[in-house]
Amino acid sequence: MKGKRDGRRLRLLRVFLSSPSGVAGLLLCTAIAVVAVIGPAVWGHQASVDNFTDLDLGPSWSHLFGTDPLGRDVFLRCLVATRLAMELALSAAGIAALVGLPLGATSALLPPRVRGACLRVNDALLAFPDILLAIFIITVAGTGSTQAALAVGIANIPWFIRLGSTLASSIVAQDYVANARVVGVSRRRLLGRYLIANMTESVIVATASMLTYSVIAVSALSFLGLGVQPPSYDWGTLLSQGLQQFYESPMQALGPAIAIAIGGVALGLLGDGLGRTFNPVLWTAARRRRIPQIGNTAPGAPHKSRSPTPSGHPLSESEKPALRVEGLSVAFPRDGALVDVVRDVSFAVAPGEIVGVVGESGSGKSVTMLAVGDLVESPAVVSYSRLEISGHNLASASPRERRALLAGNLSYIFQDPGSSLNPAMRIGKQMIEGLASKNVPKAKALAAAGDRLADVHISSPTQRLRQYPHELSGGMKQRVMIATALLGNPSVIIADEPTTALDVTVQDQVLSLLREMNAEWGTAIVLVSHNLAVVAETCSRVIVMYAGRVVEDGSTEQVIHSPQHPYTKALLGAIPDLDSDPDRPLVAIPGSLPDPGSRLPGCPFADRCPAAFDRCKVEEPPLEGDGARAACWLVHG
Q1: Pairwise CA distance, residues 61 & 63, whole Å
Q2: Domain with CATH 3.40.50.300 in the chain
Q3: What's 467's DSSP letter?
Q4: Cis ω for the linkage preceding 379 (within 30 of 0)
Q5: 307 phi and psi, to 5 degrees?
Q6: Is residue 524 within 8 Å of residue 323, measured between CB atoms?
Q7: Where are the alpha helices (DSSP H) in 18-56?
Q8: Is residue 157 predicted with pLDDT exceeding 70?
């Protein structure tokens, strides 16, 4: 472990030294730190002694910034003031960052209403200029150096809360956070490994900027007489005193101003260098040049034999469905009312079955599957009469029990492999997050993760576990997601358009891999897609959704070759084939999906259906049928 930590420190040092701004900032900050440490001891007495024979002298080799009205050397006083100025700036920025950032990041994990109320209060505080807020705090707490640091720090806490909340909210929306929640990662680990880790670069740069501002703000308070009080002095105090003699000896004011500027620039450059250093893309730049990229093993090629994962053995056939959904609805508030975007969806998936869910974009496919995994956030309202996974009824479970059941039985593969993996964590660490929440030993979990990577035909799995997501291609990232989904031996995998962001060749590889894993492990798979051709090639059963409702459900053979619902026929008609005339325009379904808020009685497809008649527009058909089911009056008569 010590060797790994030492190697990581060396990599960070190499990245930092490759940044010209970082090196320049480090040299300047080192010089400032040396002056701050030795200044009071070496020049403190000389800078404080009155010399009435050298009053208000101009710059010279003996006195670089001249002397003040009491004959004291202004340059030496600037050097001595460095310690107090930097101490106050560091204290103020530390208070603001250490209090504001955790509060802001935590707010992203709060329920939306609570988060909204907290942020409104914070925005009200941000409406006041922070320097005025600092002056108000000093008025209450009293003047002095400690009070100045506290005032500047407290006045800037709202700024860091807003920064932390904005950064965290953008990260929480990523697929890799949703995936972590599905496998049961706790809020504390989400905050540390997923939010703060991905905020590091921005936070370092922002904190460095706050240090720069704090130097100016604390000096401004001292300039106004509200900060450091005599006989102590900082750069702001010296600037205030120097302005009184500006026309006779301008360097008395320009000298402290130069010191403030140098301190601010040094801290800004150092922050820029540190921000680059804590970017994982740059951590591995040198390593990518040294290590040749190894391609994927061809599907079907021999690979390392698989050992059972720590979670148990693959799911065997059972009489109970792997997934049963009854009466699932999802509604969102709109204009003071709840609008259904998914209505009364019911289906079941047998163990070892691959079921396809198809429909146009906006038909409710993804929202339905997110609702199954309890990933639809408030203010949406999710309801269902029954939701079972591997025989466990989630409808009657407590929130804690529901999370545990989902973590042990359900996995997701999201559409974009680039956003499905945490960019701040190595592949191995995030693959075993679900096992870590079950207290599986790390070494055992990593060994199982390596086996799963071999199962999905990724070469050199041990090496891949140590890499970061940006070091892998899109196809390899999706293979990692499939391996991660298999790691906990779930009974159901929901693959939400897993091939959309991939090229045609990689799409075929991923679909082949899903079929292979299904046959080998017996895991039930729900494949969400807008492409009926993909579903026809992969799935044994097809569910067709339109406007948030299931309109047809049957075996692939029935749905593809004998579709009953006009919408299914229209989807099939829009698929081009090799025999199509290249000069003939592609077939498109006329019209568009109905707006959920203005949905009229009757069949939602009636306005686009060429076979619709009067009953279709006033009465919504039920989903019925023997074997294959369809929600259409043309079928039910």
Answers
A1: 6
A2: 325-425+492-636
A3: S
A4: yes
A5: -110, 155
A6: yes
A7: 20-48
A8: yes
pLDDT of residue 151: 92
Nearest to 342 by CA among 370, 377, 378: 370
Contacts of 419 (CB under 8 A, 6+ apart): 174, 175, 176
- 112 upstream amide cis, omega within 30 of 0: no
Structure tokens at 289: 């040049």
Q: In this model, does residue 304 exceed pLDDT 50?
A: no
List every span in the chain annotated with CATH 1.10.3720.10. 2-287
CB 538 within 8 A of CB 356: yes
Q: How far apart are the C-alpha atoms of 452 and 496, rounded to whole Å?
A: 20
Q: Which residues contact 244 (CB under 8 A, 6 or more apart)?
A: none
Distance CA 122, CA 125 (A): 5
CA distance 324 to 565: 23
Q: Which residue has the tokens 């990662």?
A: 185
Q: Residue 137 — φ and ψ, nearest 5°?
A: -65, -40
- How far apart CA 274 and CA 201 sit, in angstroms, is 8
Percent of the chain with pLDDT over 70: 87
Classify 533 in phi/psi space as left (phi over 0), alpha (psi -120 to 50) or beta.
Answer: alpha
Whether residue 545 is predicted with pLDDT greater than 90 in this model: the reply is yes
* pLDDT score recorded for residue 356: 93
SS (H, E, C) 164-212: HHHHHHHHHCCHHHHHHHHCCCCHHHHHHHHHHHHHHHHHHHHHHHHHH
**Alpha helices in 522-576, H assignment, sequence order:** 532-538, 556-561, 566-573
Of 92, 145, 86, 146, nearest in space to 266 by CA: 86
Give Cα separations from 495 to 211, 439, 476, 481, 511 (angstroms).
46, 27, 16, 10, 10
Residue pointed to by tokens 């065997």: 316
> Above 70 in pLDDT, residue 278?
no
Angstrom CA distances, 212 to 77, 89, 187, stand at 21, 8, 33
CATH code reported for the domain at 325-425+492-636: 3.40.50.300
Which helix (H) or strand (E) element contains residue 546?
strand 541-546
In the predicted structure, residue 439 carries a pLDDT above the cut 70: yes
Q: Classify domain 2-287 by CATH architecture.
A: Orthogonal Bundle (1.10)
Position 375 scores a pLDDT of 85
**Termini Cα distance of the chain:** 72
Question: Is 490 in contact with 524 (CB distance < 8 Å)?
Answer: no
DSSP, collapsed to helix, strand or coil, labels residue 246 as coil
Question: Residue 553 corresponds to which tokens in the numbers above?
Answer: 């459900």
- The four Cα atoms 148, 151, 152, 154 give a dihedral, to 10 degrees, of 150
* pLDDT grade for 543, boundaries at 50, 70 and 90: very high
